[in-house]
Amino acid sequence: MYVKILGAAAGGGFPQWNCACDNCARFRAGNFRGKARTQSQVAVSSDGRLWFLLNASPDLRVQIEATPELHPRRGLRDTPIAGVILTSAEVDHVAGLLHLREFQPFRIYATPSVREILTRDNSLFKMLERNTPQAVWTDIQPGCCFAPASAEGKVQELRCEPIRVAGDFPHYVSPERRAALPDDAAVLGLAINNTQGACMIYMPGMPQVKEFLPRFHDCDLLLADGTFWTDDELQRVGASSKTAREIGHLPISGKDGSLSQLAEVRRPRKMFVHINNTNPILDEGSEAHAAVRNAGWELAEDGWECRL
Ligand SMILES: [Zn+2]
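^ thats the input. predicted complex w/ zinc ion below
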């Protein structure tokens, strides 16, 4: 199984266009030790030929151009991108679908709730339904495994299990729609296995870890929520009144943070993804960065890849 990280930052990217937090300001001033990152995007493939995107980032067009494996290979219109697997209806996870609107057939895996939010309430996404076939929506459910397949039915030798994660629907979903939807399908994690038994887990939003620990112990690659360093990070920079936990992200530091709670998870290669621009771990000269690296974690970067 091939895994590529096309974007390693949380929503807004790093630096974020309207942000003058310590990280973003120092990056622009040229005195920041650390890399820019685009908004969260991962791609997986069993054979390196057909690829599935895990979510569709607002930066997807640039990310595809930066990734030769995802370029057209033959004819005037072609793509190795066979489909997209959505973990939520958040703008940061679905806006990139609109980059894929040029009459190209591809499959979209989503829970029925996420599909309804996008196709019934947001008419922009009708741009994906001008051709037959174009976007082929396929329902998924937490705990029900599927083998990702292209719109034409070419099946990848992968087994994907959506994992139920506590979380809410995005702010833009109307109260009426929200009331009509089951609240157990708002946010997913993904466990993806190949036929040789290698397993990666992708959890860009991880409000807690306890119930996932047995899975984490058994996997080979853990791409975990690295959004915030502290629970009050957004409050501290004055960006929001909400805590990290209140918006579905377990902070990395602290007694109950992910670094401490996942210290005993030794088998997988552990990597923080979905890193918010305010997070001090982005600064390679910071104590936070050193703490994460000394604990055996890696920081996802745009363009990172591995083969499991
Ligand atoms: Zn910032």
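The mean pLDDT is 96.
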